[in-house]
Amino acid sequence: MRIFSLLLVLAALLPGATPPRAQLPAAPEVASYQMDVRLDPAAKTVSGTGRITYRNPSTDTLDELWLRLYLKAFSSTDSLWIEESGGQLRGDQLDPDNLGNIDLQSLTLAGSDLLASATLTDTLLRVPLDTPLGPGQAVELEATWVSTLPRVFARTGYGGRDDTFFMVGQWYPKMAVYDRGRWDTEPWHGNSEFFNDFGSYDVAITVPQEYVVAGAGVPAGETTNADGTKLVRFLATSVTDFAFAASPDFKTASTKAGDVAVDLFYMPEHQSAVQEYLDSAAGTLTTLGQWFGAYPHPRLTVVDVPDDASGAGGMEYPTFITTDYGGGVAGYAAYVTSHEVAHQWWPMQTATNEGAEPWLDEGLTEYSGARYIADASYLIGGALGVSARSLERTTYLALDPAQPANLPAWQYSGGEYGIVYSKTALGLWTLENQVGSERFRAAMRAYLDAWRFKHPQAADFRRAIEQSLGPQPWFFDAYIPTEGVIDYAVGNIGGSQATVLREGQVPAPVEVVLVLENGARETQTWDGAGETLTITASSPIAQVQIDPAAKLVAEIDIADNTVAIRPPFLPTLTLAERLVFWFQSFAQLVGLFG
To answer: How many angstroms separate the CA atoms of 498 and 184, rounded?
Structure first.
């Protein structure tokens, strides 16, 4: 999903060596798809025939299958998705005159019609099986369907010059997930995205000859037809989904991240952002590969969307992302791109259920992308712009920080959902600062190694992290799942004694430095237990500094962290810090962030 924080600040900003790609074991083939589809630009449809091979991944015997028909959410203003979202997402409104739909015309198993006994509820199709499917057994479903694309909205649809740009996502009949003894039959909600099984894809796409197709996976040939069309084929393995985009206007550019090809498809009017797109995509692939474990595919496709189709921007699929020009604001394209590339780890390798536990998807991704942007020294807004750290803090403070970050997506309103991104990202950044980057990244690698190509849950993430770092109750018990915040303040200073107050509910470990009148410094680490810490120094105290190394990125108020008996004439803030402070103050004053 497009980075929530950048939606909040855009209005204010406008007027080493690369390791080889990992050769990892293939993902389990649970849900695989062979599809032959045709894009009709005039009718705004994608019609398809396909074979779905589904293998029971469990030790249970299944007497039914469940499929998802996502485009049904856009077929009526009475759908659950539309009712919950109000027909809008990320500032875009569904065009009621150009709705979407998926018409599943046939679904058969060994020649037997399955639709006659199937039950459709909103976007979910329940299919009873005459012959139960035993553990490890597979079935092959044959399907035909026609997908009608909406005017670009909620990650999919058409737009651009003369409505010739197409972003095709959530577009085919998709197997639901059977995991831990149950089918995932939670309806598609307005905030939530997708939860899928791994498999392989073989997709042949017919388009007019003048169209350029950007597809997931790797290209596997192109043929020209006598009727003015062409067929392009893509193959993908160890993935959970397939998406493509098509336009006669696409220009292309490429780079490499080690032996991974990064192929960019961009609008000609966005030429100025090409290098930023390529550099940030390749840089994120390389850096996150070094931190967490290599990207396991040979290619990454990056799609830049037209200005009037921004609803298709900022979205992730396996081996395929869409990004956003953002009006040409320096650093914006990099920030969006880095976030979407980070999704290639969470959830494209650890396939968590974003609807049920979105913080394991969007939160880990927001952290990963922001950390890359910070390390790469991008500033959003140019040379005098905002750092990734300041941007994340600004967003967090502009929201209501006193919210849990681990609720199901459907329990947040549209505006509240941003807390899943920013609170999680800043908490992980704080945890990294406390234990050290190398230890933290090793813990994240251990989590990925244990759960790559599986469906981890929050308890699995915690177990993996704490096996590496030891217990972290402040993060997992007090911070993520509660309304708690991190906040410390200097209390009284008198002679050689000082008090430090824990004003927030979260007892995050914090360093306190006493600067003595004789120039000496004394340091103590407080575990945050209790509400007050009293410290006695060896001589009179001149100044108390809480968290002088600024490790607590998630602390909500840092203005009261340093108190001196005789304050200096000028505050010890850098120019950049003062600019960020006034930016935050102004934004909150005028209600910029909603």
So the answer is: 55
Confidence of residue 76 (pLDDT cuts 50, 70, 90): confident
Q: Beta strand pairing status for 92-93 and 101-109?
A: unpaired
Residues 224 and 75 in one domain: yes
Q: Per the domain annotation, does 427 fall within a domain?
A: no
- In the sheet with 315-317, reading across from the earlier edge strand, the strands are 251-257, 260-266, 299-304, 320-323, 315-317
What residues contact 262, with CB distance under 8 A and at least 6 apart?
254, 255, 256, 278, 281, 282, 285, 299, 300, 302
Residue 237 and residue 136 share a domain: yes
Q: What is the CATH number for 545?
A: 2.60.40
- Report the pLDDT value the prediction gives residue 415, as an integer from 0 to 100: 81
Residue 371 clears pLDDT 90, i.e. is over it: yes
Domain that holds residue 37: 4-398
- Select from 398, 414, 445 the last residue of a domain: 398
Contact present, 6 and 335 (Cβ < 8 Å): yes
In a domain, 354, yes or no: yes
Least confident of 101-115, 179-193, 279-293: 179-193
What tokens appear for 74 in the block? Answer: 């856009």
Is the bond into 347 cis (omega within 30 degrees of 0)?
A: yes
Determine, yes or no, domain membership for 409. no
Stated pTM of the model: 0.91
Segment 73-89 mean pLDDT: 80
**What gap in Å lies between CA 114 and CA 111, rounded to an integer?**
9
Q: pLDDT, tens digit, for every residue of 408-446?
A: 999 998 789 999 999 999 999 999 999 999 999 999 999
Average pLDDT, the chain: 91
**100 and 199 housed in the same domain:** yes
Beta bridge partners of 328: none
Q: Is residue 448 domain-resident? A: no
Distance between CA atoms of 369 and 384, rounded to whole angstroms? 21
Tens digits of per-residue pLDDT, 35-56?
999 999 999 999 999 999 999 9
Chosen domain end from 367, 398, 429: 398
How many domains would you assign to the chain?
2
